[in-house]
Write a structure and sequence with these properties.
It holds the Pfam family ABC2_membrane_2. By secondary structure, this protein is mainly α. The protein has one domain. The chain has 14 helices and 2 strands, in the order αααββααααααααααα. It has a two-stranded antiparallel ribbon with strand order 1-2. The radius of gyration is 21 Å and the shape is globular.
Length: about 270
């Protein structure tokens, strides 16, 4: 595993564009640190500081930061599709196989890289969240601080699942731009499918079935936290209550999709004459 991971990291770090995108994908999520320190002065009448609104209290901060950070996953997605696109355009995929790398090892090297960067991103977000929470949170009890750290697990699984999908699409179309376009097409197809099911069987059943779609199942891992923030400010409004928790069933669905995408990527490579 380490040999394959090291091989792939060498390729990425020798590519200037990949290094820049990796740097951006790691740095941008940390803009939450900047948001936590923003102070807005309203014409000298009063100053609004986001950190003082309670949104960085434990345990809700785990939800907010992981949701916010997951919005920047597209930058590393470009790196993932480029890993495959460059292999085809530069003919290095054939050279790797000639040099003794099996097709299975080729796919595994990409997957190990995905897991590695997802793990690093999760650790960094975890550290940043912990530090912001310690500074702003009104709650310092250990049981409260670590109550919802399952959002970190959801964040990690979400990244691995999404990047595995990007890997499959890149293997399918062989070109980076087309793979990103296919990702957008899949998003449209999922919503068209949801609309057709809702038209035939009703909205409730359509929502349940939609939860098994690749992109929607990944989104369900970390649902939007804005409604939850409003719930803390207006607890009497029971109509705002919704299920924001991380469920093991959602994790399982995304892990299944991840396995499917890696398996299909391997199958595509096995069938192609390079």
């Amino acid at each position: 595993m380490l040999r394959l991971l090291n091989l792939e990291l060498q390729k990425l770090l020798l590519n200037r564009a990949s290094k820049v995108l990796i740097f951006i994908s790691f740095i941008l999520p940390f803009t939450v640190l900047i948001l936590s320190s923003i102070k807005i002065n309203f014409f000298g009448l009063f100053t609004l500081e986001l950190g003082e609104l309670g949104i960085f209290n434990f345990p809700i901060i785990w939800h907010i930061t992981t949701f916010f950070a997951s919005q920047f996953k597209f930058f590393f997605a470009i790196v993932v599709v480029s890993m495959i696109g460059n292999e085809y355009s530069n003919k290095t995929i054939k050279q790797n196989l000639i040099d003794g790398l099996s097709k299975k090892e080729f796919i595994l090297s990409k997957f190990y890289t995905i897991v590695f960067f997802s793990l690093i991103a999760t650790i960094l977000i975890g550290i940043a969240t912990f530090c912001i929470g310690l500074y702003y949170s009104s709650y310092t009890e250990i049981s409260i601080i670590f109550r919802e750290t399952q959002f970190l697990l959801a964040y990690f699984v979400k990244l691995v699942g999404f990047f595995s999908l990007c890997l499959f699409l890149a293997m399918l179309v062989k070109r980076s731009a087309f793979a990103l376009g296919a990702l957008f097409v899949l998003y449209i197809v999922e919503w068209i499918g949801f609309g057709l099911i809702a038209w035939q069987a009703g909205g409730d059943l359509a929502e349940k079935i939609q939860g098994f779609f690749p992109l929607k199942s990944m989104y369900n891992l970390i649902k939007q936290p804005f409604q939850r923030v409003m719930m803390t400010k207006f607890p009497e409004k029971t109509d705002m209550i919704y299920d924001y928790a991380v469920h093991s069933s959602d994790l399982f669905i995304v892990l299944i999709w991840t396995a499917i995408f890696v398996f299909l990527s391997h199958k595509l490579l096995m069938k192609r004459d390079l």
